[in-house]
Structures are given as structure tokens and as C-alpha cells.
From TrEMBL:
It comes from the Bacteria. This is TetR family transcriptional regulator. Gene3D superfamilies: Homeodomain-like, Tetracycline Repressor, domain 2. The keyword DNA-binding applies. Signal peptide: none annotated. PANTHER family: HTH-TYPE TRANSCRIPTIONAL REGULATOR RUTR. Pfam families: TetR_C_3 (PF08362), TetR_N (PF00440). Residues 1-56 form the HTH tetR-type domain. GO terms for molecular function: DNA-binding transcription factor activity; transcription cis-regulatory region binding. GO terms for biological process: negative regulation of DNA-templated transcription. Keywords: DNA-binding. Residues 19-38 bind DNA.
């Protein structure tokens, strides 16, 4: 309840513009009730961002090292795109934090996130060395997936303005991204 209210406020106002009073109002609680559970605005924000990052990483955790490489990566791309569609406020909030230098997430980004990316990059390298995936830099592959899927949430207004109301940007993006990654990652058979 508090974190949902906090998401509404922080995604609209940013950390600097948000107040505990606004969070309490959005959560339907009094300020003292909010402060009973969280000691400060920073505690609320950090808890919200940590939860969002954990949710964002769930699809990456599901990559199966024993699976078929293209299918595993396509499943990850589809999950990330679906999350952008279902959680645009969360995506924008996280992007804004990173754009501001990630002052509250730097330790997590350089620790837990880096460790997970290194782990998945190792899996991708194994697939590349086995000839099951085209030779690409695994970390930059992951960055490209993040950029190409989260763009649809972070710049949704721009995407919809350009495509027009008659288009479903997410369905079209899924088809485009599927083709892109199939062609990019198919192992060279020649």
C-alpha cells in the first residue's frame, strides 16, 4: 500500500520533488503511519527501487543454461518487453534513478546486478564457444536487450505519437525484436 503510493508519487515527481506527505496521501494513510514503517523518504525510495530491481531481474534469473540459446534469449526479450508494457512507471522510475547517477543504487548495480550479468555472460559465452550462438559480446547483448525493450516504456509518449493510435507498439516491437535477435544471434553455419 505504501510502496504503491510511493511509486505513484516518485514516478511523477522524482525523488527530489516527492514528499512523505504526498506518499502518505497517495497510500491513503497518515504521515505518522508511513513513518512507522519507513524512517525517511530515502528509506521508502530505496525500498521501492530495490524491489523494482529484483522484479526486473526475475526474467534474467530464468535463463536456463541447458536450454536452447535462441529460445532462452527470445524468452528473455519477450519477458522484458512485457514488463515494459505492464510496468511503465516502474521502468521510468528506474531509468530516472540511473540517469541521475544511481546515488541510491550504485552499490547494488556494482554488486548484485554485475554478478548476475557476469553469470549470464558466462552462459552466453559457453553457447558461443559451443557454436550454438553467434559471436557477440554477451554484456553488450544484455545492454541491447535492456535498451530495446525498456525504450517502449521510457519513451512511450514518443513511440505512440510517431506510430499513431492505430498501432500496438508492443506487438509490433515483439515481432521486430524477435526477427532482430534471431538474425543477430543465429550461429554461423558456413
Amino acid at each position: 500500500m505504501i510502496l504503491e503510493g510511493a511509486l505513484t508519487v516518485f514516478s511523477a515527481q522524482g525523488f527530489r520533488g516527492a514528499t512523505i506527505d504526498q506518499v502518505a496521501e497517495a497510500a491513503g494513510l497518515s504521515k505518522p503511519n508511513v513513518l512507522y514503517y519507513f524512517a525517511s523518504k530515502e528509506d521508502i525510495y530505496r525500498s521501492l527501487l530495490t524491489g523494482l530491481l529484483d522484479m526486473w531481474l526475475d526474467p534474467m534469473r530464468m535463463i536456463d543454461p541447458n536450454g536452447e540459446p535462441l529460445a532462452e534469449i527470445q524468452r528473455y526479450v519477450a519477458a522484458k518487453l512485457q514488463m515494459s508494457r505492464d510496468y511503465p512507471r516502474e521502468s521510468r522510475l528506474f531509468a530516472n534513478e540511473v540517469l541521475q547517477g544511481a546515488p541510491l543504487l550504485n552499490e547494488i548495480l556494482g554488486g548484485q546486478l554485475r554478478d548476475m550479468v557476469d553469470d549470464k555472460a558466462g552462459i552466453f559465452n559457453g553457447w558461443i564457444e559451443a557454436g550454438r550462438l553467434a559471436k557477440v559480446d554477451p554484456r553488450h547483448l544484455i545492454f541491447s536487450i535492456w535498451a530495446l525493450t525498456q525504450h517502449y516504456a521510457d519513451f512511450e509518449t514518443q513511440v505512440r505519437a510517431i506510430l499513431g493510435e492505430e498501432h500496438d507498439p508492443y506487438a509490433e516491437a515483439q515481432q521486430f525484436l524477435s526477427t532482430l535477435y534471431d538474425r543477430l544471434l543465429a550461429p554461423d553455419r558456413g
